[in-house]
Specification:
binds manganese (II) ion; binds uridine-5'-diphosphate-glucuronic acid; extended; alpha/beta; 9 helices
Length: about 325
């Protein structure tokens, strides 16, 4: 009897060992990431301060002490006016590829058109980004060279934000105006996310210079380095500032104005309605780094485009 028990025990022993080893290997395997898509952390070194802290402690016998709750990540709202032209889809593709890498970003795309176009609708459906698709046409009389562009579209974006957030206490959010042809570094979003009221930073390739920037002394904006109309109260391009959602909601009448506004003055006229120069929050290392470029796309050469459709297929470009 004893020998039967012994022999059974020795037959089972290797199997028990194999099961124990397999279970151990399985618990050592790192857990899959919670957010499958990459994002740019708004907090240097990760939100918890240390790199990989949670993972390193996985197999320790005592669980780590509970961490204090994190403040919610402010949503970044990017308002982009856009209009139909041969390069439109290329511009929107570049922009989406940038925005997709930013956590908690909501893209408000406003078409300068009487209706939402199929091209933009299809594009947004596949863009993999939280978005809102609006449209408003620029009145014909304002579609002239020398007049400000995209006034109605930016105001439509502001109206949507006010309507959506009007009935509740503002959730933390930051808004900025992202023209469809500019180039945005991922670091810019990290900077603007901490905007309390209105923040400013340098813009590259603008105003007839390599860059324009707010001049900062003791952490305050005291003037502007610019090559164009230095007499502007806020000598900043549309790409050079962000506004907190709270400021947009508590100044419900602040909009971009056609009347009395010349090209290049829209930014200053808008900012005058919501803030003062003294209040501005300088970003990008006291405005010494260029994190956004006012790039402009060359007009495409379509000289050889046939007058009538010649190809055997119809392709969206
Ligand atoms: C400069 C500023 O950077 C813009 O913010 C400002 O709106 C513009 O001047 C102006 O003159 O009002 P710029 O490169 O000259 O920019 O202008 P665009 O890039 O041609 O247009 C700015 C935005 O408006 C773009 O997102 C563009 O897609 C959009 N847009 C332009 C329209 O929605 N409709 C138009 O007819 C033209
Ligand atoms: Mn532009």
């Amino acid at each position: 009897m004893k020998s039967v028990l012994f022999s059974r025990f020795f037959i089972l022993l290797p199997w028990i060992l194999i099961v124990i080893i397999m279970l151990d290997v399985d618990t050592r395997r790192p857990a899959p990431p919670l957010t499958p898509r990459p994002y740019f952390s708004p907090y240097p070194g990760g939100r918890r301060g240390g790199a990989g802290r949670g993972r390193e402690q996985r197999n320790e016998s005592r669980p780590p002490p509970p961490l204090p709750p994190e403040p919610p990540l402010p949503t970044i709202y990017a308002i982009t006016p856009t209009y139909s032209r041969p390069v439109q889809k290329a511009e929107l593709t570049r922009l989406a590829n940038t925005f997709r890498q930013v956590a908690q970003l909501h893209w408000i795309l406003v078409e300068d058109a009487a209706a939402r176009s199929e091209l933009v609708s299809r594009f947004l459906a596949r863009a993999g980004l939280p978005s809102t698709h609006l449209h408003v046409p620029t009145p014909r009389r304002y579609k002239r060279p020398g007049l400000p562009r995209a006034t109605e579209q930016r105001n439509a974006g502001l109206a949507w934000l006010r309507q959506r957030h009007g009935h509740q206490r503002a959730q933390p959010g930051v808004l900025f105006f992202a023209d469809d042809d500019n180039t945005y570094s991922l670091e810019l979003f990290q900077e603007m996310r901490t905007t309390r009221k209105v923040s400013v930073w340098p813009v590259g390739l603008v105003g007839g210079r390599r860059y324009e920037r707010p001049l900062v002394e003791n952490g305050k904006v005291v003037g502007w380095y610019t090559g164009w109309r230095a007499d502007r109260t806020f000598a900043v391009d549309m790409a050079g500032f962000a506004v907190s959602l709270q400021v947009i909601l508590s100044n419900p009448k602040a909009v971009f104005k056609r009347r009395g506004s010349q090209p290049g003055m829209q930014e200053s006229d808008f900012l005058k309605q919501i803030t003062t120069v003294e209040e501005l929050e300088p970003k990008a290392s006291n405005c010494t780094k260029v994190l956004v470029w006012h790039t402009r796309t060359e007009k495409v050469n379509l000289a050889n485009e046939p007058k009538y459709h010649l190809d055997t297929v119809t392709i969206e470009v």
